[in-house]
Design a protein that fits this description.
135 residues, mainly beta, 2 domains, four-stranded parallel beta sheet
Length: 135
């Protein structure tokens, strides 16, 4: 079944539904999504993301930096060795967010944060845009 036939089958009408139709998967309103990430695996998160559980099996990368204001909501985070790449900004609409409900069985995870603001002063900054400069 091609994408247009799938769209007709599910009777997609809104712009959000057409986005799902473009990728060939139906929109889910409920259910369970469990994700296990192995070393070398990468998830490019965009928009609002909801997982029932996320398990890092010794590695894995969740990258939220392709959009602004990306959120990842995880019911239960387990395993260890995972890395989250996230943008932070003074503007809450541009900051990425991570929400975890259950951390009872989690190991060591890493958050690599990138700051999205330029220092508000007239001097020079030895770092690149997006890096924190000492004032």
């Amino acid at each position: 079944m091609n994408r247009s036939a799938l769209g007709r089958l599910y009777n997609w009408k809104s712009a959000e539904d057409r986005t799902y139709a473009q990728y060939g998967v139906p929109r889910l309103n409920s259910g369970t999504i469990n994700l296990t990430m192995d070393p070398g695996s990468k998830w490019q998160a965009r928009g609002k993301n909801f997982l029932t559980s996320l398990e890092f099996n010794g590695g894995g990368l969740v990258d939220t930096r392709k959009g602004h204001g990306v959120s990842v909501t995880i019911g239960k985070l387990t395993g260890e060795g995972g890395t989250f790449l996230m943008d932070f900004s003074k503007d809450a609409a541009k900051s990425d967010m991570l929400y975890v409900r259950d951390l009872s069985q989690f190991g060591v995870q890493h958050i690599q944060a990138y700051l999205l603001f330029r220092p508000a002063y007239s001097g020079s900054c030895p770092g690149l845009y997006g890096q924190l400069c000492r004032l």
